[in-house]
Amino acid sequence: MTPEEGPEGPAPTQSRQLQELCALYVLGALDTAEATSLEARLRAGDADVVRAVTAWREIVEHLPYALQPVVPDPAVRDRLMRRMQDSSPIVVSSARWWRGPRLRVWLPRAAVAVLILALSWTVYDVRRQVSRLEAELQRLHSTAAESQQVLLLLASPQVTIVSLTGSAQAPQAGARVLWDTQHREWTVVTRNLPPLPPGKAYQLWFLTPGAPQPSRTFHPQNGYGMIQVPLPPEQTRVTGAAVSVEPEQGVTQPTGDIVLVGTFSSEGQ
Amino acid sequence: MCPQDRTETTLIRNLQAGDQQALGALYDRLAPLANAVLLRILGNRADAEEILEETFWHVWRNATDYDPTRGTLAAWVITIARSRALDRLRVQKRQASNPAAYAEEARAALTSAQPTPEDTTLQNERARAVAAALRVLPLEQRLPIELAYYEGLSQSQIAERLRQPLGTVKTRVRLGFIRLREALQPYLGARHDA
Lengths: 269, 194
Hints:
- Chain A has helices at about 15-25, 30-45, 45-60, 75-85, 100-155, and strands at about 160-165, 175-180, 185-190, 200-205, 215-220, 225-230, 240-245, 260-265.
- Chain A is α+β, with helices and mostly antiparallel strands and about 270 residues long.
- Chain B is mainly α.
- Chain B has 10 helices and no strands.
């Protein structure tokens, strides 16, 4: 090969110009416009350009070997290693991401964090369920106590049972009054009472020959409820009972719809 | 695949996997050569070592950017170092502001340079071959190549510096490359590690 030949053999004028362009390109000495143009040809895969650039690049890569290596101050290496150990952030290849130092450090931490979160959630959930079960248990205890009380009343010879029937406003509703004559106390058990409007409650009334005597208000659950109330003073003759829809705090005279009503033939019947 | 290729492949694989020892090994192999290039460009030991550290830090952080089809690992590292040094040089404009001091500092830095004990026979042979090739290169061919490589001058700046027509500079660079290729023929066409 003669000195005039480029990487691809004999060099006509056009080829010589390309060799010169590529030689200056690998040295980084081309002006911007020429470099841009040559890079476009490289990207397009121009075989002549690729061949020339590859060949000349290999020459340039050898230039440093003409220099005598110079061992740097050991402090540089120390600084580099310390810096690396302090941060250890490295962009690892996607194929080996799981082997990177960052992952080796963070994966166990992430696992512990997930475990803690999972345990926290489990503890929270268990506590929530325990609270719900406690409330349910309390409700069942209450229901059981009420049922027990009703059973005792039913078995008692001093208790008389009278019925209240639903009015036109609550035809499906009904109630039983367990009248404890000995203790002068009523236990009223209701069923199928309609849901109450907001701010309203059901109120029990003692029907007497005069005006109805107010008793307490109550809120049945799902139409069912049980209340215990003392009877009015002995001199008051109770002839029946009624339940009406009234304001929450109760009233002294019925103002709302009567939903249950019943009359007795005689007191303590 | 030659043993050196295997060594380089293993090194880059470990480096990309985040092996800190691999960076240490790479540094030990390439830092003396990279440092020599940096000293030649910057002419100042402190600046050279600062850029050297930054170069290997960049290699550590961006190991996956290395593409073996585009050159050796050594070439990649030296390219990063050279590019950063030339950037620094352009900012400092040291030669323009005080060329005499620069030349003196560069000479002092290179004179005090000690060869690394880890040089292999192949490295020495190659270094000798490259040095000899450059030495026998006619000055008018060597100068434009060195001005481009070590000072980062563009072809127009080289022409201006050497007071030669641009076409002459281009031709001399090409001829210089051809002569270098002939002299380095035994070392070309195969991968060579540092």
